Amino acid sequence: WKLLPTMNSQLSVCKLLTHWNSDLTLVDGTKECIYFVGNSLGLQPKMAKKYIDEELDKWAKTKNVFESYIRAMGIKSPLCVCVCVRTGAKPEEVALMNGLTVNLHILLLSFYKPTAKRHKILLEDKAFPSDHYAVESQIQLKGYDPKRSMLLMKPRPGEEVLRTEDILDTIEKEGDSIAVVLFSGVQYYTGQLFDMAAITKAGQKKGCYVGFDCAHAVGNAELKLHDWGVDFACWCSYKYVNSGAGGLAGAFIHEKNALTVKPALTGWWGHNLKTRFRMDNEMDLLPGISGFRLSNQPILLVCPLQASLEVFAMTSMAALRNKSRLLTGYLECLIQHYYNKDESQPHKPYVHIITPSHPEERGCQLSLSFSVPIAAIFQELEKRGVACDMREPNVLRIAPVPLYNSFSDVHRFITVLGSALAASKELQQ
């Protein structure tokens, strides 16, 4: 279950934290730091540096580095096949290319075809900012007003996550005016795992295209993009897929759309490989997502992705999800036991979990809100060698990633959290 030997040691996190906070006097140098921020940047695979050095060496010696593109350029490449296994797609439905937001724009250019009657895009009110901006700009690009064409879903008053029945009800009521339903697979702030199958079925029943930003879902949840009939999807690879900051992203178009939805922008890399080098400027467009590729993949970004996917190939998403349910459940249990609100101790700081408690409605992330300001808690955790993620206004995102985190990490975190809460309380007094 624990594949840490294939990932760089968590002790390196101490070095990383020194760039953020010079006060690390409370770090126990005999123990590994606790890295619970894989939902933002995954640990570095140990083979990543080796593969990058190999390519740099080939380049320095003027070898034909173009041959290395075979790793990522074709649908039969090991990288593409491994990504398909992680996303539940067919090889011809997936391409590795660009960055996440670039891919989202490219896909929306083709899937968002607004009309006077059907011009809205349905998404979460608190979608990740880049998704919100992409949707807003695509609506404006097509000559529509985001105030009328962006349909934003909010949780019910007093609630923190969206109910599936409310999403389906909105699609049923508004579906005739919706061109595209676009949700995240896992909501970045709350950690909610959406019912992608149900949303896809409901949206398509009303004549909408349905797509997902799977940035927080790939490598975290079991996906079945093909079987669910999802029209399109895109994702980054530097979170749970551990390819490094700015890593090579991915995109998916279901085979049913391969011949009917064509790219609005074309490039040489979307040309059929069999005729590409004729250089006759007569486009022989590949069907489906392969035709959406504009240019070749940067080989230095391919290398760490290859290193990471080799680690994933040692296990399965079913095994990782099994551990994830137990690992995240263990964290939830300990938080509720030690840090729940206690009416008999009104001055005791407490923690509230906003992520859904049902294991099938979340990945490995728990989003925690606190009864006290989180900035001091975050700093105290850093001082003690805990890497996590703070999100305004009052949430710490904690992600025990099953690929490399352990139950011991969770237990130690609970102890360290107690010390951080106590220290932050003293600072406030």
TrEMBL record:
Keyword terms, alphabetized: Acetylation, Cytoplasm, Hydrolase, Pyridine nucleotide biosynthesis, Pyridoxal phosphate
Pathway: Cofactor biosynthesis; NAD(+) biosynthesis; quinolinate from L-kynurenine: step 2/3; Amino-acid degradation; L-kynurenine degradation; L-alanine and anthranilate from L-kynurenine: step 1/1
Enzyme category, top tier: hydrolase
Chain residues that bind pyridoxal 5'-phosphate: L100, T101, F128, P129, S130, D131, S184, D213, H216, Y238, W268, N296
GO cellular component terms listed in the entry, alphabetical order: cytoplasm
Residues where N6-(pyridoxal phosphate)lysine is found: K239
Localization per Swiss-Prot or TrEMBL: Cytoplasm
InterPro entries, per database record: Kynureninase, PyrdxlP-dep_Trfase, PyrdxlP-dep_Trfase_major, PyrdxlP-dep_Trfase_small
EC number per UniProt: 3.7.1.3
GO molecular function list: kynureninase activity; pyridoxal phosphate binding
Catalytic activity: L-kynurenine + H2O = anthranilate + L-alanine + H(+); 3-hydroxy-L-kynurenine + H2O = 3-hydroxyanthranilate + L-alanine + H(+)
BP GO annotations: 'de novo' NAD+ biosynthetic process from L-tryptophan; anthranilate metabolic process; L-kynurenine catabolic process; L-tryptophan catabolic process to kynurenine; quinolinate biosynthetic process
tRNA processing listed as a keyword: no
Cofactor(s) recorded in Swiss-Prot or TrEMBL: pyridoxal 5'-phosphate
Pfam families found in the cross-reference section: KYNU_C
The protein's assembly and partners: Homodimer.
Protein family per UniProt: Belongs to the kynureninase family.
PANTHER family reported for this sequence: KYNURENINASE (PTHR14084)
Record's function text: Catalyzes the cleavage of L-kynurenine (L-Kyn) and L-3-hydroxykynurenine (L-3OHKyn) into anthranilic acid (AA) and 3-hydroxyanthranilic acid (3-OHAA), respectively. Has a preference for the L-3-hydroxy form. Also has cysteine-conjugate-beta-lyase activity.
Name of the protein this chain belongs to: Kynureninase
Gene: KYNU
